[in-house]
TrEMBL record:
Ranges annotated as biased composition (Low complexity): 1-26, 37-50
InterPro entries attached to this UniProt entry: ConA-like_dom_sf (IPR013320), Neuronal_Pentraxin_Related (IPR051360), PTX_dom (IPR001759)
Region (Disordered): 1-50
Cofactor: Ca(2+)
Protein name as annotated: Neuronal pentraxin receptor
Residues forming coiled coils: 125-218
Keyword DNA damage among record annotations: no
Pfam families membership: Pentaxin
Start and end residues of each Pentraxin (PTX) domain: 226-427
Amino acid sequence: WAGEAARARQPAPAAGCAPRPAPTGRFLCTPLPAECPSDSPAPGDGPAPAEDLFFLHAAAEQLRQTALQQRDQILSDQETIRELTGKLSQCENGLELSFQDSAALWGGPRKDTMGDLPWDSPAMVQELEDAVRSLKDRIDKIEQELPPRANISTSSSPVLTRDVLHTKMEELEEQLLSKILSLEKERSSVTSNNDQQQQEVEKELSVLQSRVSELEQGAPHFNPPNAYKVTIPVRTNYMYARMKKSLPELFAFTVCMWLKSKASSGLGTPFSYSAPGQANEIVLMEWGHSPMELLINDKVAQLPLNLKDGTWHHICIAWTTRDGVWWAYEDGEQRGSSENLAAWHPIKPHGVIILGQEQDTLGGRFDATQAFVGEIAQFNMWDHILTPTEILGLANCTFHLQGNVIQWDDELVEVLGGATKWSFEICEERMKA
């Protein structure tokens, strides 16, 4: 400061005169003249100028501290704080320069500072008060320009703290989670409704198909009861026939049927038997370009059968749990045999037999790519191994054997999803051919 430099060069005061303390505020920099004040104040004069100046310095310092405290407290708006600090600095620098320009060296002649008034005159003190008041007014104006949330000088102003922001974020997260759960429920409801609608459509289609069959064929009962065929015209996951009887526990079996496939590639699944705990207890299927397979308890054996020429074929599959031996017959002739297919595994009881679909769960969850397309007739099943002569007689229509476990009877076969029953006698068809 220029005042401090000047004070360093000031001569020692005269004897008997106590030195007057120099001002210490930031706003007033010009030193007081080093002369002894009068013992008694002039008549009519107010309080001593030094006391007034000290009061003004204290007031200005208090205002400056208040501004600094406000700057420290305003964390959410740094740009506004910088602007306020800059304005305060400009005000202080401007006031200091106005005093410094009018200040003189200690002990030397001094120019008038404000309106050519003496430094220690009441008018000079009044002008200093006006300058401080003007500074305070400018600070108040700057505070009023701040956003309401940034003005935290009083306890009544609204304050958006971090806790409030955190609470708001939690509320928004709860709303978002609630919306996601609502959408999940809606999607589940839509899926459930679609499944229900599909089942209703299948039931309606089955009723319509049965009605059409009744109108075209007259009475729904066939004479004899096994003189019919099941037709599955389209590869879907909802057209099939279901046997109303289940299987007992088996240690051997023979299953025979007549098949006519309409698929160009991949015969599909003529029949499948699922049991509780095992969806692939017994499955006969041909998928894609793979050979026909027999699955027992999820164990697989490939069968050398060829049934994709669009004509009727008689097939028989025989199996025994002893060493897992199996035999495959096509049109009365044995085409293959092997062993170790689910050896010593008994066939589980109380399952579901489906014609035309492969089951992924007990009685359902069909896959259209594994479905059978064509016609099925004379599906019978025995709990023992038929002899080659018996199998040949069935294929040549010389024997008429009904299965002792599953019989091909109109009352025991239910068609669903659009599959139909038609009057059919395979031996008569072969004789016509």
